[in-house]
Amino acid sequence: MKGRFSIAVLLLAALAGCKPDNGYQWNDEWDAPDPAPVVPDPSDEGIVGKPRYVWIDAAANFDDYGNSRENIRKDCERIARTGFTDIIVDVRPTTGDVLFKSSVAPALKRIDRWKGSTYDWAERTADFDYLQAFIEEGHAAGLRVNAAINTLVGGYLCPYGLGSEGMVFSDDSKRDWCTVQNLSSGLTSCMDVSDYGPRFLNPAHPSVQDFVVTLVGELAAYKELDGIVLDRCRYDDSGLQSDFSDDSRHAFEKYAGQRVTSWPSDIFAPGTTTLPSSVSSLQRQWLSFRVKTIHDLVEKASIKAHEVNPDIRFGVYVGAWYSTYYTSGVNWASPTYNCRQEYPWASAEYQAAGFADHLDFIFLGAYAGVDSIHGSSEWTMEGFCRLGAKRLNGAVPYAAGPDVGNGSGFENGGQSSRIPDIVSTCLGASDGLFIFDLCHIKMYDYWSSFKSGIDAYLKTVNK
Question: For residue 264, what is the DSSP state?
């Protein structure tokens, strides 16, 4: 999904998930019996070799699962037969509405999806608990089940005149929860920006933090759920232009112990999207403040999850491109990783705000193109994996892997021959395999390729 593209475009691609303009529909041939390996038990002790995770985006897979528990059952069985050990089920897509029981977030009633040659709305008419169905059917198939939420989003402005959805659009009281961007035209609420895409919540807003922690607690209350994953736990897609709200100003001035005389230009001039060649002391403090804000939210969420359910695993998804991830206000590394050696703009406070030690697992999007499997640098899958090990420094197990539908060269399918090499490379260079997204495996019929790659890996484990 993310090769050498702009972050904003890539995130919109992720949102679209799959674009099934080839008439993609449910196909009963996916359920044809094939030789089944030993299905792992959902417990840690039953996993053979390193874990293998596949993500299930809510919007991209909604046609199959939104109103059909039977389709959930069928594909969980197929996923297990293919050799994956875990599913990561998106239960709070970018509209911000939810597919689990919540007292603070509205239930998802419709979702935007790609159909034919455009987007339209898909209605949820079923009344079964979507997350609980995946827990039960996934466990019956021998899979561990992890729930993912788009953490700091509250709504989505859709393209093609489809309109908008989500609490920040339907509830005026939530408008001040949204981020304020430092655009060249001046400070602007993301609600007043015309670009399509998710509308982000301000991580420095106390009510937003309480909201996120409550959501995590509600997920942890699903006692049979194996794990919780925070996705988009970061600042919005405008990067360094976010967030310059009054809440962030007050929080930063308290953090820095000084008043900012000219806001926001003392931090960044309007429209700034990249760091200057010479970073000022105040700018260093601002970068540290942003990552500490995310660090503290992750820590609070982790504590809440384990208070409610001591057995649950808690983690995050992040992009593996650490060298530029500071624009999202995230330091996902271990605090023992000396980022200051590589990045002169980083301070001791920035390093200390690494949040890896608050996690039970982490997922790195190694979203290199199909021709960039091997290598030692960022924007190769292997390089992303190995650099991830360096930056995490043993603080937490991690799984890494590509987007096999949106990344450069993956967009039109036809990459079955590459899949076994991808499986071998990512499993060899990390603690597990992470694949985005299930819809691409189905659309391009990569089932047998993944099974072949995983079977080959398991043979090396069993030697």
Answer: T
Residues whose CB falls within 8 Å of the CB of residue 266, separated by 6 or more in sequence, listed in order? 260, 282
Instruction: Provide the pLDDT for residue 118.
Output: 77
Tell me the three state secondary structure of residue 456. Answer: helix
Contact at 8 Å (CB) between 202 and 179? yes
Distance CA(300)–CA(272), nearest Å, equals 31
**How far is it, in rounded angstroms, from Cα 347 to Cα 367?**
28
The 8-class DSSP code of residue 31 comes to G
Cα 420 from chain centre = 24
pLDDT greater than 60 at residue 284: yes
Q: What is the pLDDT of residues 353-408, one digit of tens each?
A: 999 999 999 999 999 999 999 999 999 999 999 999 999 999 999 999 999 999 99
**Radius of gyration of the chain measured on its C-alpha atoms:** 21
Report yes or no: 60 and 19 within 8 Å, Cβ to Cβ. no
Q: Residue 203: name the closest of 185, 230, 170, 222 by CA.
A: 230
If you search the block for the tokens 């919005």, which residue do you land on? Answer: 236
pLDDT reported for residue 5: 30
- Please report how the helices 130-140 and 69-82 are oriented relative to each other, as an axis angle in degrees rounded to 10: 40
- With contact defined as beta carbons under 8 Å apart, do 264 and 297 qualify? no
